Amino acid sequence: MVKDVYIETILLVERLHRRFLDVVKTELDRLKIDDINNVQTLILYNISNEQLTVGELTNRGYYLGSNVSYNVKKLVENEYLIQEKAPHDKRSTRIRLSDKGLKLCTVIDALYQRHIDSLKTAAPGIAKLSEINETLHDLERFWTDYINQVYKLGSSL
Q1: Of 60, 104, 49, nearest to 80 (Cα)?
Q2: 112 lies in some domain
Q3: Which residues fall within 8 angstroms of residue 123, CB to CB, at 6 or more apart?
């Protein structure tokens, strides 16, 4: 029973992420935006007004996939991102949103706001989402503690 609940939680988190990617894809399709995909759109949204290195994208959790360089390259090619040499280290490049990228972020922010407005009166509601978030943070800490413990002991548990 406990194992079933644990596995269901893991599967549900993954399924929810995929479903949200479908939501973003639906919005892109509705707006007839076809030069960017849903994952790349979320990368842009997470960058927002920051200037980052590609490594910082993954370090900050803005991108969790393995092909971040490919996605950054496509975002630069399609003029959503501007990539420039870092002024203090010519070996490093920094990325930031172009005007086109900023405009798309405004569109996605409006999507988020429509969802927030709906959640004020529809299930699951903001209060329940806050509870869910607390639980997910607890689960993240549980997994982080496990990883740290394994590394500290130098073996698996």
Answers
A1: 104
A2: no
A3: none
* DSSP tag of 96: E
Assigned domain for 147 exists: no
* Residue given tokens 């959790």 in the structure block: 61
CA pair distance 42, 81, nearest whole angstrom: 13
Does residue 8 lie within any of the structural domains? Answer: yes
Is the pLDDT score of 90 beyond 80?
Answer: no
In eight-state DSSP terms, residue 62 is S
Tell me what percent of the residues of the chain surpass a pLDDT of 90. Answer: 75
Helix (H, G, I), strand (E, B) or coil at 95: strand
Whether 156 has a pLDDT exceeding 70, the answer reads no
CATH number assigned to the domain comprising residue 80: 1.10.10.10
| 157 has a pLDDT exceeding 60 | no
Angle at Cα 49 formed by Cα 27 and Cα 110, nearest 5°? 30
Annotate 29-58 with DSSP letters as a single string.
Answer: HHTT--SS-HHHHHHHHHHTT--B-HHHHH
Within-domain flag for 142: no
Total structural domains within the chain: 1
